[in-house]
Amino acid sequence: MKGQITPYLSFNGNAKQALEFYKEALGAEVTGVQTFGEADYPTPPEADDRIMHAQLKKGGISIMFSDTFPGQSVVVGSNISLTLEPESDEEIQNLYDALSKGGKQLMELEDTFWGAKYGRVQDSFGIIWELNYQKS
Length: 136
Known about the structure:
Blueprint lengths: L1 E10 L3 H12 L2 E7 L15 E8 L2 E7 L12 E6 L3 H12 L3 E8 L4 E7 L5 E7 L2
């Protein structure tokens, strides 16, 4: 695995405001923002301005941000997941299988439009893991 475990924060449509708040509070830099409307993914028009993915960095610290899809919501206090970045198909499959054992598969492990293999699981302790193997 590369890097560190990265926190992934989810919001009910106010991720842009949260991103700006944490940028100022932490003196960090926004390194990427993509809205649902910019993504090569079918979304309803009301989602166009919502953040699909954004990243904030300062030194070795990275925090990822996203809004929920319209019609979905998060419960404040449980709107965080942890992201791991495996370095091979085998490693992401092993992590997906191990972390979902006794838990739930929230999103099937699959190839994505952003050039990664991605899956999302909730482990048996209720922790949500986002697994993203960025292919070269």
